Amino acid sequence: MRRLLLALPFVLLPLAIAQAHDDDHDHEHGSLGKHEHGVAALNVALDGKTLEIDLESPAMNIVGFEHTANSVADKAKVAAAHAQLEKPLVLFSLPAAAGCTVTEQALESPLFGNAKAHANHDDDEHAGHGHSDVDAEYKLSCATPEALKTLDLSAFFSQFPATQKINVQLIGPNGQQGAETTPASPTLNF
C-alpha cells in the first residue's frame, strides 16, 4: 500500500537536507518542529489507478485536545472525528467522475486507542504532557484517474477548523510537487 509513499522521502531528500538546518534553528527557539498545532502533513501519490493518501496531524487539529478522552463530550468529539476521517472521498473532495473507491484505510491515534503518544521534551508549554497525533492512511482505486485534476482540501479545513495549514507533497502524472495549503488557498493541481 505504501510503496509510492515510502519512495517520497527519497525523492524529496534534497528538500529535507535544506530543511534540516531550519529545523535545528527552530528547536533552538522552542518550536515544536514536527508536532506543530495548526499544521498537518499530507503525502499524496497517484500511480495509474491507485491513489494513496497519508495524513499526519496533531490531535489538537482534529479534536481540539490531546489528552485521553474521559468525559462524554470528549469521547463524542473523538467518535465524530473518527467517523469524518473514515470518509476520504469527502474530506479530499475527490470528484465522483474519477470513480474512486477506498480499498484500504488505517486510522491511528492514542485517542482511538491504537497508537502511543509521544512526548516532546523541548516544548515548555506542554512539559510533562504527551502529544497525541492522528495518522490516517488511505489507498483508493480510481476507475478514471484522469478525472483527478485537483486536490481540494476545502472540506478538510471545514471539518477540522483548527487546522490552519497543510503541507502537501504530491506525486502525480505531472511529476512531484510540494505546496502549503490553507483555508484561503486549499487547492493543488495534480
Which labels suit this protein?
alpha+beta; single chain; 33% strand; globular; 10 strands; 190 residues; 6-stranded mixed beta sheet
What does this structure look like?
The chain contains 6 helices and 10 strands. By secondary structure, it is of the alpha+beta class. The protein starts with a helix and ends with a strand.
Summarize the main sheet: 6 strands, mixed
Helix/strand structural class: alpha+beta
Rg estimate, integer Å? 17 Å
- Calculate the terminal CA-CA distance, rounded to whole Å: 20 Å
Number of helices: 6
Q: What share of the residues does DSSP label as strand, in percent?
A: 25-35%
Percent of residues in helices comes to 25-40%
The order of strands across the largest sheet is 3-6-2-1-8-9
Counted up, domains total 1
Pick out the low-confidence regions.
8-33, 117-128
The residue-averaged pLDDT reads 81
Sketch the topology as an H/E string, one letter per element: HHEEHHHEEEEEHEEE
Choose one word for the global shape: globular
The total of beta strands comes to 10
Protein name: DUF2796 domain-containing protein
Keywords: Signal
InterPro entries: ZrgA-like
Signal peptide: 1-20
Provide the fold topology.
Blueprint: H1 3-11, H2 13-28, E1 39-47, E2 50-58, H3 59-63, H4 72-85, H5 88-91, E3 100-108, E4 118-119, E5 130-131, E6 133-142, E7 150-152, H6 154-159, E8 165-172, E9 175-181, E10 187-189
Parallel strand pairs: 1-8
Antiparallel strand pairs: 1-2, 2-6, 3-6, 4-5, 7-10, 8-9
Organism: Pseudomonas kuykendallii
Keywords: Signal
InterPro entries: ZrgA-like (IPR021253)
